[in-house]
């Protein structure tokens, strides 16, 4: 069995996900890590041994011939450059969502993967959430008929802690939170509705966190989540520059006729995504998205609020992000080693970003309906064919 050697780029923060890939017993070894902050190496040394190669310059990892695979889990604005360089260096790439912060950036990544033949995989871990998979199974069974409309409300109680104190708060680094958070939700809605957005419009604004007190420019932003950080207007140490929306409402027209709406709020007291899919014979809704949660199915008509016809009870799964992180890492490793068919797809990741980008543009330019640029058939066919020419 050939050992597959792995490099981790951006190994603090979300990079802790990559530790799931260190599986010497299955032939996968993390042998190099890169981060600007050397403290991020500590946990990797404990897991993989002191001999692990460490560097502040990710390009050093790309120069190592026997590294087959890299995970890129750096901030969003670095994805495009790092992914393109890694693909050109012949590495198979696991790239965190959102794929990039512009549509052109996504398309350049896709084109590079197509030209080099290096494998590309996007970290849309929500495709492994038990609640999402249960909703997909119900929709695919046909019990609620043909999906016509989809709504999602995303309440984010940690928005002030996570997205308005560091790079996320600035358009130049994140573009907007319809990419950072919305890319997940839009991707789930596209996947379960069976289409991609062709036109989008939106309204949204920054109306809460711009009123909170800021940290000095020279002080580093500290991101710590705590339910005691409440109410939003009393919080402090926010980024000196905040120019992304803290609430957004968008409407989407899909290529298969389905229509969708998505609402995202970063100052809600609770924390959940609530999707509903309405078909020609019923409707489903998730109550909670990870851990102990439920999927409700309505298939009969009754007056007033009533209990669903079927309640599916779901239970906690071990692993971060509702058990999705170990699953997505294993799917990627098996894609690299055995070419398995994957549940996620770079084309879908690109359309999620493209929808977020155009929705954000609509919000910032008066709410008009904007078209999503299409990809060429050559690129679509390549990725839908499992990245084979
Ligand atoms: N799929 C998910 O559920 C999920 C969850 C959280 C974050 N994310 C994504 O993961 C990515 C990282 O998010 P985060 O919250 O960990 O961000 P972060 O700001 O904590 O950064 C992650 C790490 O990257 C390092 N880094 C920054 N610049 C670097 C460079 N030039 N070279 C090497 N390392 C560098 C930082 O030091 C840090 O350790 C983002 O794209 C985010 O959207 C995905």
Overview of this protein structure:
This protein is an alpha/beta fold. The protein contains twelve helices and 15 strands. The strands form two sheets. The chain has a nine-stranded mixed sheet with strand order 14-13-12-11-7-10-9-8-15, with helices on one face. A six-stranded parallel sheet has the order 3-2-1-4-5-6, sandwiched between helices. Helix 3 (79-88) packs parallel to helix 4 (103-116), helix 4 packs antiparallel against helix 11 (346-364) and helix 9 packs across helix 11 (346-364). The protein binds nicotinamide-adenine-dinucleotide (NAD).
What is the overall number of helices? 12
What Rg do the Cα atoms give? 21 Å
Order of strands, main sheet, comes to 14-13-12-11-7-10-9-8-15
Largest sheet: 9 strands, mixed
Number of DSSP strand runs = 15
- CATH top level of the domain at 127-324? Alpha Beta
| CATH T-level topology of the domain at 127-324 | Dihydrodipicolinate Reductase, domain 2
Query: Which regions contain 5 or more consecutive residues with pLDDT less than 50?
Result: none
Strand content: 15-25%
The overall average pLDDT, rounded, is: 97
> What best-fitting shape do the alpha-carbon axes yield?
globular
From the 3D coordinates, which CATH architecture of the domain at 127-324 would you assign?
A: 2-Layer Sandwich
Catalogue the ligands. Answer: nicotinamide-adenine-dinucleotide
Helix content: 25-40%
Distance N to C terminus: 26 Å
CATH superfamily of the domain at 127-324: Dihydrodipicolinate Reductase, domain 2
């Amino acid at each position: 069995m050939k050992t597959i050697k792995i490099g981790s780029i951006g190994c603090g923060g979300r990079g802790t996900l990559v530790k799931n890939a260190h599986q010497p017993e299955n032939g996968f070894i993390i042998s190099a890590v890169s981060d600007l902050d050397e403290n991020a190496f500590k946990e990797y040394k404990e897991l993989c041994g002191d001999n692990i190669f460490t560097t502040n310059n990710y390009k050093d990892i790309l120069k190592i011939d026997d590294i087959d695979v890299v995970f890129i889990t750096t901030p969003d604005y670095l994805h495009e450059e790092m992914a393109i360089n890694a693909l050109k260096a012949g590495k198979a790439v696991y790239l965190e969502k959102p794929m990039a912060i512009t549509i052109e950036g996504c398309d350049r990544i896709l084109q590079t993967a197509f030209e080099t033949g290096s494998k590309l995989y996007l970290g849309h871990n929500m495709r492994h959430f038990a609640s999402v998979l249960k909703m997909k199974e119900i929709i695919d069974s046909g019990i609620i008929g043909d999906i016509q409309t989809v709504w999602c409300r995303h309440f984010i109680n940690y928005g002030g802690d996570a997205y308005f104190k560091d790079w996320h708060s600035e358009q130049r680094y994140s573009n907007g939170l319809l990419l950072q958070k919305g890319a997940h939700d839009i991707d789930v809605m596209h996947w379960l509705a069976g289409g991609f957005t062709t036109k989008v419009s939106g309204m949204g604004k920054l109306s809460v966190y711009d009123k909170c007190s800021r940290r000095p420019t020279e002080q580093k932003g500290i991101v710590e989540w705590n339910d005691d950080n409440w109410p939003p207007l009393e919080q402090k140490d926010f980024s000196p520059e905040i120019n992304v929306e803290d609430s957004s409402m968008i409407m989407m027209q899909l290529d298969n006729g389905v229509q969708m709406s998505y609402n995202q709020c970063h100052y809600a007291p609770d924390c959940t995504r609530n999707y509903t899919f309405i078909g020609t014979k019923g409707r489903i809704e998730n109550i909670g998205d990870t851990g102990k949660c439920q999927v409700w199915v309505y298939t009969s008509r009754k007056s007033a609020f009533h209990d669903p016809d079927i309640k599916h009870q779901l239970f906690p799964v071990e692993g971060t992000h509702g058990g999705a992180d170990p699953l997505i890492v294993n799917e990627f490793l098996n894609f690299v080693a055995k070419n398995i068919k994957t549940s996620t797809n770079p084309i879908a990741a690109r359309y999620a970003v493209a929808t977020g980008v155009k929705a954000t543009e609509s919000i910032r330019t008066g709410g008009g309906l904007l078209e999503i640029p299409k990809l060429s058939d050559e690129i679509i066919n390549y990725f839908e064919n499992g990245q084979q020419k």
